[in-house]
Amino acid sequence: MKSNQVITAIDIGTTKICVIIAVTTPENTLEVKGIGTTKSEGLSNGIVIDIVKASKSISDAIDEAEIMADRTAKNIFVGIAGEHVKSQNTLGRISLTSASEPCEITQDHIDNVINNAKNNIKIQQGNERLDIIHAIPQYYDIDGQTGIMNPLNMSGFNLSAYVHIVMADINTIRNITKCVELCNYKVRDIFLEPIASSFAVLNEVEKKLGAIIIDIGGGTTDIAVFYKDSIRFSGVLPMGGTNVTQDLSIGLHAAPQNAEEIKITVGNCIASTIPQDKLIEVEGIAGRESKQKKLRYISEIIEARMREILEGTYQMLNDHHNLKMITAGLTLTGGASLLKNCEFLAEEIYNMSTKIGYPYLDRLSGPTERLANPKFATSVGILYHAHSLISDRNDLISPVKYKDPFISIFKRLIANFKEYI
Fold this sequence. Notes:
CATH topology of one domain: Nucleotidyltransferase, domain 5
Helix content: 25-40%
Distance between the termini: 43 Å
Oligomer: single chain
């Protein structure tokens, strides 16, 4: 890949939009140039509900990243999640030859067997309004010999591929793409967010031995299972950190922004660790009198919802996968994973070793300190995933908007002025 090529990652979440602009280096690594974050508007559980507000949020985040990077966003890769996402493992099969001698397997054969698997999914009832966004081979069979990771240049008569297919609602994909296009940019590709996050928080050993990643975002909780270097399951639970905030807002009779602050500053996922007599003051709504509330009561509300989320993911995984095969353990990431004792609650439910997934930043240079947080795992993962897909290509040219240097100067003046407001 040529150096100094721009790659842009956009994490479009229910509560925040995050944009990272990076450039490739001569060493084929990435240098972060700009980071932009804004509050997410016009989205709910990964679905666009107001395209004007959503595109404005995306535009603001891109603008912030461009000002910091002093360059235009190009080659835009977007993360997607939500209840509309559906995943399935399927099998593709092709005959390599009708002759009496085996045939050497080429890349065309591999592409054909994966396409066969995709076609098997497309013809299934209920998938008419879904687009395939990932077709990830897990392993291959050649004439009954199983567990082959790369069949290229091997010989055989028949080739089978076990493939993990991820599909998303056509309208949702188009609406998210349209949001970016309304900002005068073009989406290069879309990734499922837990798959992208895995590039940032799991290493090769974990993926080989068996690992679960649970990304607890604002509106959804995204799940992926890896085993023997391949993805075996992915899914979405339509609950996240916003549900915890809503529960607190109702239970404490507090404004949502106050409930969110309480959750972040004093929230705890294991209520029994809080003394019974400890109190905090909760601000009343719209000027009403403040009241003192027991901190344990607050933690009981948080624990109840977080337990529901984690038990929901456990049930989903247990129904589709043999959890005894998970040797490396569980990784929690996303903003809500930072709630105190979240990993210990997960350990109790899953009965397996659990860690909080901070994104690995060793493959990045530049101003990366801000990214050392689980809430940036998806955006960092999108960046890594995009880089891995295009690292051998030199044609990174995509339609982008014209950047007027006078507009750039004006944006910088506005950004500097905001610091004094």
